[in-house]
Amino acid sequence: MRLPSPLILSYEGRWRYACGVIPTPSARFFALAVASSFVVGGCYGLAEKSFDPGDHRDVLQSILARGIVATEPIAGQTACDDHDLVGNSLYLTARMPEETEPRDVYVHMYREKYWDRSAAEVDKCEAVYAAANPDSEITRLDIPTYRIFGADWSDELTEELTKALDEASHAGRD
Fold first, then answer.
1. How many CB atoms lie within 10 A of CB 5?
2. Which of 18, 53, 103, 162 has the greatest number of beta carbons closer than 10 A?
């Protein structure tokens, strides 16, 4: 026995569902859009975001906006010989306007998802820098998504760098 088709041909030559529902193109598009939004929302709605930090330009812009005098910025310059750090590092010298001697600042940038595992490689690089500067006081700031260090920073420079990197960490893209 053959079952009847759910579609029948109407007297106007259009296909209609036998149950009386007429699937117009706009109704099908609406149903597809609603279903897609649930699928996309289900995949990404509860997921933890992993954003990029502000890039080199954002970091420099935030530093300069805080009144810090920054000179000699070099992207990719590290304090150690670790080629894996080159892609996410920035070197510059910095000082507050009333200070006369610029200080080294090494900034290492990471995506949020790599933040936890980035500490060990920056620790090694910081140790090499500290060994090369034995009479200096090394300061380290860990501000997600940046790890930054240098020697002999004043309290004011440390405070302003902290504020600048905190600001830059929110300048990236989601």
1. 10
2. 53
Confidence of residue 110 (pLDDT cuts 50, 70, 90): confident
Query: Is residue 50 included in any domain, yes or no?
Result: no
Say if residue 69 is in the same domain as residue 124.
yes
- Say whether both 76 and 31 belong to one domain: no
Instruction: Give the pLDDT mean for 82-105.
Output: 92
Per-residue model confidence as pLDDT tens digits over 28-42: 555 555 555 555 554
Question: Dihedrals φ, ψ of 159, to 5°?
Answer: -65, -45
Same domain, yes or no, for 21 and 70? no
Are 94 and 164 contained in the same domain? yes
H helices within the chain, ranges in order? 25-44, 56-65, 115-132, 155-169
CA-based Rg of the chain, rounded to a whole angstrom? 29
Residue 74 lies in a domain: yes
Per-residue pLDDT at 161 exceeds 70: yes
Average pLDDT over residues 119-136: 94
**Residues found in the chain:** 174
Cα 55 from Cα 61, distance rounded (Å): 10
Name the residue range of residue 11's domain.
7-44
Q: Give the pLDDT score at 61.
A: 92
The single residue listed with the structure tokens 């009386």 is 20
